[in-house]
Amino acid sequence: MDEGYIFRKKRLELPGFFRPTKEWDLVVVKDGHLITAIEAKSQVGPSFGNNFNNRTEEAMGSALDIWTAFREGAFNGGVQPFIGHFFMLDDCDASNRPVKVREPHFKVFQEFVGASYMKRYELFCRKLILERCFSRSLLSPLN
Q: Is residue 142 pLDDT above 80, yes or no?
């Protein structure tokens, strides 16, 4: 029997490799195979600095955890799932203002010099795709 299920409010837990489970925001399962898992995060001001680091670490950790679980057969093998990351950011003066970088020992990558938090998140989403951490990563300004 060809059954597909989309979960949005409950039954969103998927096994991880480094932790027992993680709750995703949208999960699609068909015939016992993971088709899609999407994570949605947001940030509003004023504390963009600490939250930026926390959000980036969360996303990288989630990606590593689910892809390693996939490699180890947690989702009944089969076709590689679509893993998405959707990030919404408060479009305000503080998120668009250039941010200083600290370089006490080594130079940071040039694209971060003078970049706002909006630009940093954009770069982060692009790099997540480039490094195949997520199938798709999208930044959407909240306004």
A: no
